[in-house]
Amino acid sequence: MRKSQFLMAFLSAACLSAATASAQTLTVGLDADPPKLDPALSTALVDRQVMNQIFDKLLDLDANLKVIPALATSWKVTNGGLTYTFKLKSGVKFTDGTALDAAAVKYGLDRNRTLEGSARKNEMSSIKEIKVVDPQTIQINLSQPYGPLLAVLTDRAGMIVSPTAAKKAGADFQNNPVGSGPFTFVSRVRQDNITLNANKSYWGGAPKIDKLVYRPFTDGDVRYANLLSGAVQAITPIDPKDISKLEQNPKFNVLNYPGIGFQGVWFNVTRAPFNNKNFRQAVAATIDREAIAKSIFYGTVTPAAGPFPPGTPAASSAITVQKPDIALAKKKLGGKPLSFTLLTTPGSVTTQLAQVYQAMFAQAGITAKIEQVEFGTLLDRADKQDYDALMLGWSGRPDPDGNIYDFFVTGGTNNQAGYSNKTVDSLLAKARAQTAMSARAATYNVALSTILSDTPYTWVYFQRNLVASVKGMTGLKPIPDGILRFKDVDLK
After folding, report:
1. How many whole angstroms separate alpha carbon 211 and alpha carbon 213?
2. pTM (predicted TM-score)
3. Which of 10, 203, 13, 192 lies closest to 95 in space, CA to CA?
4. Segment 56-74, tens digit of pLDDT
5. Angle at Cα 29 formed by Cα 27 and Cα 32, nearest 5°?
6. Looking at residue 16, what is its pLDDT?
7. What is the mean pLDDT of the chain?
């Protein structure tokens, strides 16, 4: 080989080695394996962590929960709140190379509101029709005013899928999702990893990291150990007992900021024993929410009185946290025995919490057997109402409707209790149609007073967003919806 040829080969190899060395892979530890990577079918927060990287939304949220432009650059509301017109960003393409235009947006929105099994149907039920005005303009016409619409479009309902890919994949789309987001789906191995590559042609600029890998660790101790070892560069959530240790460790950063969701216990009202309201009220009366916040969560959660966290638009001082009352619980039992199975997921915190619940119930003579199943299985059984009681919460939404309507309206997608009350249905529908937030908040809380009495669900605490990352990771913004957005994140 000539000297010049050798030099060229050496430089090429060096360049390749440098490029390989500079390629950045960020691995994130999650608390569960995302069940469904399809905006229409998803019902889990952990799905949203991944899908927010794959799909662009019509709108998004900032750190103050203000609705901001995304695919839609601007919008206006006319016709007495019945018509929403959105101008779309031009030149956007899905990662399969097809155009993201008004026709594609119409397809995505229509798919979310009409696909069989779609979890988006209730939150989009006020939409009468969607029209393509021109290639960059979409119009949504409502059958009645719907105050939460803009907030709804900042989440899964506003995620736009590739029509070409969705039509081709059919029911299998969740296993090969295609959007226009900053990352592209590559592969997944169930219960092991989901791998995404950077979308180098992303309209908002290429991500700084080259590969994003999600790994599920249901046990918080395992998540923590993987962070310490360097196997992952970020974890969410952090087990509360580990927060102070990470805060004091100079190798890591901790984000601990308010969330907008809630946690508690569902009761299956469609079958015994919890088709008996007194039994539901008895269980709820045994729970010491203050003690749980202090002993299990080290003060990182707030005892909950209902679905609306402090500082959010519908939070009301008139709705107070229920205090434990064993005498009341026994009175509600009326001398009758109560035993049931409490369904939950594996993990050190969920296991401890279930055991604490079990002990609290026992003070009133209530027997609870704990059954643990994988998170996707728990969601499936919740949807099928195949349980007695189960521990399940909600990541929260910026508009109060997202924390109450779909959970308690008759037939709601997230109404896993099978609860139905015509008065509540009427009030929830009224609140959606009101325009002033003060009026809507008041109506939601009137409905809530009936829900609290009926007790298809008992709220226990409001969670915070807890994220740990290596010191060299920068650019992560603390958005209260709890979704980690990695487009501008860098590793140094």
Report:
1. 7
2. 0.86
3. 203
4. 999 999 999 999 999 999 9
5. 135
6. 36
7. 94
User: How many angstroms separate the CA atoms of 214 and 153, rounded?
Assistant: 25
Asked if 340 and 389 touch (Cβ cutoff 8 Å), the reply is: yes
Is residue 122 pLDDT above 60, yes or no? Answer: yes
CA atoms within 13 A on the CB side of 386: 9
* Count of all residues that appear for the chain in the document: 492
Question: What pLDDT is recorded for position 204?
Answer: 95
Distance of CA 180 to the CA centre of its chain: 20
